[in-house]
Request: fold
Amino acid sequence: MEVKQITLHQRSLEIKQHSKKDGVLTAEMVSSCVSNLGRFNTGLQHSYHHLSLPRQNLSDISILCNYIYLQKLELPHNKIKDLSCVSHMPYLVILDISHNEISNFFGFQPPKNLKEVNFSHNRLTKLKDLSAYSSLTKLDLDYNCLSEIFGLEQCCQLTHLSLAHNKISRISGLEALPLTHLCLRGNQLERIEGLESLKSLQVLDLSMNCITSLSGLQNLHLLGSINLEKNLISEIQECKHIHDLFLLRELNLQGNPVQEQPGYRLAVVFLLQHLTVLDQMKVTVEEKVSSVNKYDPPLDVVAARDHMIHLVYQLMQPQVLYDSTLPSADSPYPMLVLTGPQGCGKRELAHRLCQEFSEYFAYGTCHTTRRPYFGEENGIDYHFVSEEDFQNMIHMGKFIQTMQHGGHRYGLTRDAVEDVAREGLACCVHMELEGVFSLKKSCFEPRYILLIPTKVEKYMDQLKSRDLYTQAQIDTAVSRIELYANTNRQRPGFFDNVIPSDDCEEAFQSLKQIVKEYLLLEEQDDGENNRASPDNTSVGHEPEEKLLSPLSRSTPHSAMALDPSHLSYRNYFTKIQAELSPQKSPAELASIARREQLVREAIVGKSPGVYSQLFKSSAQTAQVQNQEPGTRVSEDSSWDESRASSALSVPSSAGALSNLVEPLDISVLGQALETPKGQTTEDLPPGTDQMDLVASSPSDRRPGSNALPILPPIPTGRKTPAASSPAPSPRPSPNPAGGQGSVQTKMASTESEI
Ligand SMILES: Nc1ncnc2c1ncn2[C@@H]1O[C@H](COP(=O)(O)OP(=O)(O)OP(=O)(O)O)[C@@H](O)[C@H]1O
Reply:
C-alpha cells in the first residue's frame, strides 16, 4: 500500500514537470491521473467521466477531444486559452475552467446537458448569445472584464449567476431568468434596476458598488438575503423599500454611510422586523423589543413613559397640598372622560354635557400648543400656549398627562381638574386614546366613554365639512377608528361605555342617559321605558355589535340593576358572568369587583351616592355618604380621612407626608362659606344647607374666578338647578340626609405648600 502511494506521488510530480515544460496535456498524463479519474464500467480507455487537473500549468488540452464521455471537467489554475475540445464532449455537465486565460467566451459547441460552468478569473470582455446553452443552471463569470450583461435571455434554467468583480454599470438582460442567486459584487452599479421581474430571487449580493438607494428591490418577495456591503447608502429610510420583504432574514449594510446615522441599528431592526442577521451580527430579541419601544411604542409603553415623566417632575416640585379634599382617602376625583378619534364630536358633547348637567359637571380645559381655530376661546376650549410654555409646564410638574397629536401637544393639568373639583363638580374632559392610557396609569379613576364613528363615510364627510384638516389628517383620523375598536374589543372593561358618534344628537341623548345612570337620576326623569337596557351600551340605538365588549354592553349602574331582588339584576349578572367566564382580564376583574362592591352596599342598605358611579366606590365613601347632616367636622372621624385624602391628592408626595400635616384650622371655614349675592345663612329658607348655596351656581365659578374652594361631591338631593338649563330631578336618596352635603361643608380651601 505504502509502495503504491509513493509511486503515485512520484508520477504526479513527473507529470507536473513534464507539462510545465510545454503545457501540453498528453494521454499519458490523463491516464496517469488515476486518482483524479472516475471510470465507466465499460472498460474503454476514453470512458472517463470526471477529469480534474488543477494547477498543472496546462495551456494545450486538445487531447481531450478524445475523451468524449467526460461529464465533469475541472482544469482550474492553468494557462488555457482555447476550449474548443469541449465541443467533443456531448455529455459534459460540469466545466470548471476558472483561473485560466480564456478570452473567448464559450468558444465551443454546446454540450447538450452542460449545467454548471465556471469561467471566473479569465479574460472575458464580452458575453455572447447563449441561447444554445439552455440547460445552464449555474454560471460563474467572476473576475473578468465584462461591462455588459448580454446573451443570457434564453437560459431558461439559469438559477445561479455570478458576475462579481467585472465592470458592469447597469443591470440588464436578466428579466426572464429564473434566478435564485445573483451576485454582482464589485461592479460599478449606481442603482438597482432590471431586477423587478426576478420573482424567484432569494440571495442577492450587490456589495462593493456605488448604490445609493434600495429602490428596485421592493417586489422581490422571496429575497432572504441581501448583501449591500460597501455601497453609498446613506439614509435609514431606504430600508422602507425592502420593508415588505417578509422572507428577508439577512441584510448587510456594513461600510455604508448609513451606519453613521444615530440609532442606525435599532432603526433598521425596527423597519425590518423579520431580520435575524444584520451586518453579519445576529439580531437579538432585546434589540427587537427596544426598537419597537423606541419607534412604535405600544400605547401602554407611551402612557407609562408619559406618566413617569409627569410623576418625576411633580416629585421634583415643592410639595403642594391641594385644597379640594375628597371625602376619603380612597376616593379619587370624580371625572368623566369622553374619548374617540379626532373630530368625532366629543368636544361638543363634553361642552353640552357640562351645560346640561351644570350642577354636576364642569369642563376640564386642557392645554395645547396648537393655534386656536376660528371661534375658539382661550381658557374655554383650550388654554392655548406656546411650545416653550408647554415645556416649562411639563418641567414644573403641572401635567397629569400629555400627548402629541398632529404635531401639536395636548395636556391635562392637575390644576384643570383641581379647579373643577374645588367647585364641588366632576370634571368632564375629552381626549384621544393615548390620553386615556396615560390617565389610567395615574391615580385618577374616571369613567371612560368611547364615542366612535360607525359610518366611516359619514365621519369623513363630517371631517371634510369642518374645513380644518388635510386629507392626510382625515385619513389618520379614519384609520384610528380601528385602533379604538380594537382596544374596545381586546380589553374588556377598558371603556365603561361605548356610544356611536355618527349622529351628534343621538349620541348626546345616549350620553345623557348614561350619565343619568351614573348619577342615579334616570328613573324619575325618563321613566321605565327610556332606561338603558342592561344589554345595551346606550339608549336609542344599537351600536355595532362588533365594537362592543361584553362589559361595555352591560355596565349600567342603575338603582334597579343594583337591586338584587329585581329580575333584571339577576339576568344581568348571570349573563355577564357567562360572557366573561372564558377568560377575565385584570380590567374585567376590577370592573366586576367594583360592581359587586356596589351591590353589597346596596344589600346592606347603603345608598350608592350620586357621584359614586363616577369613580371607584369604597366602603369609606359609603361611610362618608351616610353621615348625619350637620355633623361638625371636628366631631367626624371621616374628617381625618378627608384631610388625609387631601394630602394623598398629590400622588406619593404629599400623601407620604400626610402624617406631618398640621390639622387644618376649621374655624376659617365658616368665613369661607359666604352665601351668594351677599346673602347670609339667616336669609335662607329653612333647611337650606350652606353647601347648597355655595354650589348653587357653579357655572359662575369657572377656573380663574374667585370661587370659594368648596369640596366635592355634590350632595344627593341638591335643589338649586343651574339657571341655564333645568336640572334633572335628583333621585330621592334612601338616606335623605344626603351625607355628602355635610361633608362638603366641612371641606376647606387651603392651598398650602409644605
Ligand atoms: N390632554 C389631552 N390628551 C389627549 N388628547 C387630547 C387632549 N386634549 C385634547 N385631546 C384630543 O386631541 C385631539 C385633537 O384635538 P383638537 O382640539 O386639535 O382637535 P379637533 O380637530 O378640534 O377635534 P375634536 O373635535 O375631537 O376636539 C382631539 O381628539 C382631542 O380630544
Notes: The pocket of adenosine-5'-triphosphate is lined by residues 342-344, 346-347, 366, 370, 401, 403, 405, 410-412, 430-432, 434-435, 468 (CB under 6 Å). Residues 1 and 7 are 10 Å apart (CA to CA). The chain has a mean pLDDT of 73.
